[in-house]
């Protein structure tokens, strides 16, 4: 009786092992099939390929800030729209600093709200070394509705990519869009899928 029980127990353990291995394989297959999604592109305002609107603002420390063709410098510029009340911004701000450093981008933070709260956010996330404009005009010019929102502008003033961002992959997808010439990660994925569907 004891031998039969042990035998049945080993059979159950073997079946569970096979089931776990099968599930692990299926998870791997699903992971390969699910393409990484880039920043969520919105249909409002200027789009990738358009010239960035000319906007003048003042940074929170009193410096003049100009955005648009002729004002962008020699590197691509990442505009990151944030707010102290935005929970995802807490995660995105350090990631944006890291992506800007690794991809050689100029990083500008844009806010629109109480100056004391913005200053507290600047201190909390140690972004005093970056330009920070507390200006509703910049958000209105780019039609920013939800946060965190990012816009990548090339040195010639053309918008390379834009969209809602909530992960490092979303931020990096903006740089990939700039380098690949596609307006978004979704456009790149469509360009791959369409020839396959036509076959």
Overview of this protein structure:
By secondary structure, the protein is α/β, with parallel strands linked by helices. It folds into two domains: 1-34; 55-194, Glutaredoxin (3-Layer(aba) Sandwich), CATH 3.40.30. It is 45% helix and 17% strand. The protein has six helices and seven strands; from the N terminus they run H-E-E-E-H-E-H-E-H-E-E-H-H. It has helices at 2-33, 89-102, 115-124, 136-141, 168-180, 185-198; strands at 55-58, 64-67, 77-81, 106-111, 132-134, 149-153, 159-164. The strands form two sheets. Strands 5-4-3-6-7 form a five-stranded mixed β-sheet. The longest helix is centred in the first third of the chain and has 32 residues, at 2-33. It is elongated. 30% of the residues are buried. The model is unreliable at 33-37 (pLDDT under 50).
List the helices and strands in order. Answer: HEEEHEHEHEEHH
The CATH homology group name of the largest domain: Glutaredoxin
Determine the strand fraction and express it as a percent band.
Answer: 15-25%
- CATH topology-level fold name of the largest domain: Glutaredoxin
State the end-to-end distance.
Answer: 61 Å
Question: Which of globular, elongated, flat, extended, rod-shaped describes the shape?
Answer: elongated
CATH classification, class level of the largest domain: Alpha Beta
Let me know the number of strands.
7
How many domain units?
2
Alpha plus pi helix count = 6
Level-2 CATH architecture of the largest domain: 3-Layer(aba) Sandwich
Q: Percentage of helical residues?
A: 40-55%
Secondary structure category: alpha/beta
Radius of gyration: 23 Å
Main sheet properties: 5 strands, mixed
Instruction: Give the neighbour order of strands across the main sheet.
Output: 5-4-3-6-7
pLDDT < 50 stretches: 33-37
Q: Indicate the mean pLDDT.
A: 85
């Amino acid at each position: 009786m004891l031998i039969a029980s042990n035998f049945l127990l080993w059979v159950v353990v073997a079946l569970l092992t096979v089931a776990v291995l099968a599930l692990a394989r299926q998870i791997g297959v699903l992971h390969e099939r699910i393409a990484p999604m880039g920043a969520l592109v919105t249909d409002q305002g200027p789009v990738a390929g358009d010239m960035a609107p000319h906007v003048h603002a003042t940074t929170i420390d009193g410096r003049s800030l100009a955005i648009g063709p002729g004002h962008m410098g020699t590197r691509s510029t990442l505009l990151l729209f944030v707010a102290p009340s935005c929970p995802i911004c807490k995660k995105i701000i350090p990631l944006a600093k890291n992506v800007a450093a690794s991809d050689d981008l100029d990083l500008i933070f844009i806010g629109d709200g109480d100056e004391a709260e913005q200053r507290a956010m600047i201190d909390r996330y140690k972004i005093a070394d970056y330009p920070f404009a507390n200006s509703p005009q910049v958000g209105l010019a780019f039609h920013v509705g939800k946060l965190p929102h990012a816009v990548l502008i090339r040195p010639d003033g053309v918008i390379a990519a834009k969209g809602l961002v909530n992960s490092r992959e979303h931020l990096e997808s903006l740089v990939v869009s700039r380098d690949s010439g596609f307006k978004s990660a979704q456009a790149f994925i469509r360009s791959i899928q369409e020839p396959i569907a036509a076959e």
